């Protein structure tokens, strides 16, 4: 039974409940925080273009300025250091490195990330670099984007250039963030860039993204022999809406696309046969050797956990005749996502039971609420703090039961550009006033800071 977030007594939890070498981080991504879209020779990304489409972004905004992190990064890294983090997850804007087709890598882009990495190391923050967090260069989209196999090779080249340049200092590499979102939000639902709505394209894109992960790994390992490399997946614990066989079967199908479509090939099983059979007309072109490349061993599995889903049979609903139903009487974030700390443990246990997987890092977990700045300038986001406390307690309990989880990255260090939701959804431990760019640590951030300073914590 899912506990409600407003249960009266949040669990007591201390950093000392976790291993001494546990990693404590915050995560961000380039397009969501950097701004500076015309600075340093950056080219356009698919998100710059997508944001120009009327109605694409809820508040009509874009990441053109975002948190202006491109210019304010020292202050932001100071925030991470002052929180007591020992790791920081960030991503590289591919169009800063390859702004134009066929051009040589842009030295200004490489220098920016070089300074950023140096800034992390100076502050005791272990850099966790994500190569792709959704900002594909527009010039690659104009050649077909992730639907084209050439983009796979362009990504491998990008991985090679970035790892050759930063690999002397960056040892932790994440190839892709949430390939499900790239494929399904971006190419089936059309709610993310590039705004395509075609299931067949989405499955081909998912395959190319996974293949590009597989081809990037050897490039990273060649440049960084002591690299730890992996991928970050958005995964969900699922349950059927009822005991009816139709709902149970629908849940299995939904799992096949949500979770297994990515976990299976990464773990050497190829694409799930049940989904391939059902979607035969839309199946991706998979060439000889692709599945072997995708299944190359990794050093960790990044798990982004936000919410569970309840699934019911939905006759006729594309693509798999399955739909998500809302559980009643549960706490939900401002996004409507169910707050379910127990789901984190259930998800980790399921992955470890079903797959011979590498150690897990929680590479994202967080929540959005309608934050209010008080008259005293404080942001009393007790719901986000409770969310954090309860998810960390669930993580601690899961590790105590034997799960191999080595680190946790809160999403996010800063309020930022939340994709199709623009600036209407705040996920930060730090409040950003987007008019003035003032940063203020929220109560949740204050709690995380106290927790990381080894003080015994009561939620
Ligand atoms: O903001 C996103 C992030 O870019 C990817 N994972 C989920 C977050 C919250 O929606």
Automatic annotation (TrEMBL):
Stored InterPro entries = GH (IPR017853), GH_1_N_CS (IPR033132), Glyco_hydro_1 (IPR001360), Glyco_hydro_1_beta-glucosidase (IPR017736)
Please name the PROSITE patterns in this protein's record.
Answer: GLYCOSYL_HYDROL_F1_2
Task: Report the EC number(s), separated by commas if there are several.
Answer: 3.2.1.21
Q: Name one Pfam family in it.
A: Glyco_hydro_1
- Provide the GO MF annotations for this entry: beta-glucosidase activity
Q: Entry's NCBIfam families?
A: BGL (TIGR03356)
* UniProt-recorded name of the protein: Beta-glucosidase
Protein species of origin: Massilia terrae
